[in-house]
Amino acid sequence: MRLVILFIALSFSISLAAGSLVAAADGAPDTHGWAGQSGVSWHWILPPTANGLQPNQSWHAIAGAGDGAIYVAGMDHLTNSALYRIDPETRALVSVGDARAASEAAGNWTAGETVEKFHTRPLWHKGSVYVASMNRSSLNSDYLDVRGFHWYAYEAQQKIFRDLSAVEPGGASAEHGNIVATASDPKRNRIYGASVPTADLFLYDVASGTTKNLGRPATFDRPYVYTGRVMWVDSRGRLYFTAGNPINGAHDPAIYAHVYFYDPDTGFGERTDFKLQEPRALESGQCLDKGRRCVFTDDAGHIYLFEDAGPSWRYIGQIDRQNQWSFIWMMQVSADARTLFASTSLGVKPSVLFAFDLATGVTRPLCRIGDLDPALAGYEIHTGANAWDRKGRFYFASSGPRGVIVTRLDPAALLRNGVQGSPCKAPAKTR
């Protein structure tokens, strides 16, 4: 059954290429967005790029950044991908660059080349925002048919979006392969990337502009492994990661039901005491208190807490997502680490927004995503993690029939509304 739902999701993502773009009344995309009818939200549609990309999907590709802005990637799953920036103060949304334009500017775009997706969460590292390319996400040998991935970076001060891989041998950072998750090690000035479909780890040395394939744990027992969509680096410089998912068949819990690490000094290792509830890689996460605490979820809503002191690992509980075939692809943790906000994708229709109490493990359904604004009607894929602005509002991206809609949600206002009724509907006016 789960394979059927994933097939539906894949078919849906491909069909989005034919979707129309929501536009302002004059026919031009409204780059400042609109107020949601809920009274607690604001919405934008990702506009087309100057070279014709019309984004209709966004996969785990929205994040807050050190400059106070929100960055989100949009793609069409066919030809090209772009990075956008939202200014929370002015509400202006602009494209800061796209893969094709950046690579063409560097003389590094080959005939017939594509960048189907930026599947990575935009990564803030020392004043720049990094993404990486993906052209084949299937767990088979299809990735060998195309050139390997490119690193791209938006240099915030210079306002330049560059293809960093143009200077590497062959113009790519690997002969073949794609990047689906990244993590920053600012002390060593390096970025890690996890690849699809082999789950190899790559290290990008920012100072030298070079990429190295670190390999993968020797215990992985299959050539193609579902790669965890989130990784993190602790205060000691260790990179933590996970792999495996039932979509790739049965997995041995002794191999895939715990966390792995890469240590810059000793190499790969395992934390068999950092147990997962099942052989299912982590999908989303958010670190708080300068990395002292991190909260993670897999796509089935199992919640875990990592604490840097020790370090230690603890299972918190599971989101009651109302349907075992629903996916959790969007999660945002409040600054006080008390509440995790999440939404379902697929499975439960229409999609539902939840609040999960991290102390008690109790799930509270808040409302349907479509109640925020009529534009979200029919949208059943929602992604994003740790995408907060400085005013305590979080952002997520929804892929659907009219393009990518980015939503900003004020959780404090949302919960205040809940006292009077449905928190995703504006309270009735009083005379």
Describe this structure in words.
The protein is mainly β and 431 residues long. The protein has one domain: Methylamine Dehydrogenase, Chain H, CATH 2.130.10. It has four helices and 29 strands. It has helices at residues 2-15, 99-105, 253-256, 411-418, and strands at residues 34-35, 41-45, 62-64, 70-75, 81-86, 93-98, 123-125, 128-132, 151-155, 160-163, 178-185, 190-196, 201-205, 210-215, 232-233, 239-241, 258-263, 267-275, 282-288, 293-298, 302-307, 312-318, 327-333, 339-345, 352-357, 363-368, 381-385, 394-400, 403-409. The strands form six sheets. It has a nine-stranded mixed β-sheet, covered by helices on one side. Strands 3-4-5-6 form a four-stranded antiparallel β-sheet. A four-stranded antiparallel β-sheet has the order 7-8-9-10. A hairpin with a 5-residue loop joins β3 and β4. The N and C termini lie far apart (52 Å). 50% of the residues are buried. The model is unreliable at 1-28 (pLDDT under 50).
